[in-house]
């Protein structure tokens, strides 16, 4: 391993996270308060996020996986129910269906140029057992939620958005995560709004919100903050709940970072447009999505597709070892993981499989410099030019 690989000054990471003094002060103030579990800062963040995306309710939880699980349960997913999901997504999109007792049914994507769930294939997969459809907004680019919401309304199905990548992204002028019965957001450490761990369920449905608020804390009718304030002395547990609480330091950090989210996304879009210009004539790769779609996206990642799938692994290795550039894969196809092959054998999704073998995620974060970007593009061109 050479010096360029081991020196953090030379490595260009695929993700990078920096905190401001305001972020640090917000967390320190929370620690000094002595109240660390779900409380007033969580309530404040939920209100701010709901207003930010235009949702009636926002329920903060410990992860996007927890938000998906609660959304599936609220939609009535259980034994015998099917939920149509993409396979080109984080495994949690499907795993949470199984947590709820349901069965994920995998839909193909539109193509390598649009790695989003295909509404036409979704329509073909609907059966009497189908309970919900889950568009996942890959990379912060909106799936066809307008078509899918109409299809779900026509067939009496719930639409639950996996909006893990998508704060501030839109379709038809409407914020992603607000089109369906519920939307699930992620605050994991590499996300657009990142605090390490955390998630949120957004919904306009009062019953779904009440269900999620109850079930995230063991289904107790009051939470610790209520009892701390002397509002209630006793509580009941009317159903099966979970420990999906978020904590106050992360809620405080989310509040602080939310204030500059618009600036961060604007910078991501600027860098994405520049990547697209620089990469347009590089042989051996194609760019998914369109120039116009960038303005509606949160630009969570910068994906490229190699023209020859067999070059995916060697190119990633060369970028890291020879050029000190880190990359990632978004995503290996879920139905090809061993746990899912054994549970759901015989699935064939040609477009998803091609995209999974072709995609490479390039470095992208708000403080990525143009010099670093140039280095990434020049390294790709050098490795792919015959």
Question: What does this 3D model show about the protein?
Answer:
The structure is a single chain. The chain is α/β, with parallel strands linked by helices. It has helices at 3-6, 21-33, 40-53, 64-74, 92-99, 119-125, 145-155, 206-215, 224-228, 248-258, 261-279, 312-323, 338-343, 350-358, 370-384; strands at residues 57-61, 82-86, 103-107, 109-111, 114-117, 130-133, 158-162, 170-171, 174-175, 182-186, 199-203, 285-286, 302-306, 359-362. The strands form 4 sheets. It has a 7-stranded mixed sheet, sandwiched between helices. A 3-stranded antiparallel sheet has the order 12-13-14. Strands 4-5 form a two-stranded antiparallel sheet. Helix 2 runs antiparallel to helix 10 (248-258). The model is unreliable at 1-8 (pLDDT under 50).
In terms of per-residue confidence, which ranges show pLDDT below 50 for 5 or more consecutive residues? Answer: 1-8
Radius of gyration: 21 Å
- Helical segment tally? 15
Strand content: 5-15%
Helix-strand makeup class:
alpha/beta
The N- and C-terminal alpha carbons lie at a distance of 26 Å
Strand order of the largest sheet: 1-11-10-7-6-2-3
Largest sheet geometry: 7 strands, mixed
Please state the overall shape, judged from the principal axes of the Cα atoms.
globular
The percent range for helix content is 40-55%
Mean pLDDT: 94
Total strands: the figure is 14
Order of helices and strands: HHHEHEHEEEHEHEEEEEHHHHEEHHHEH
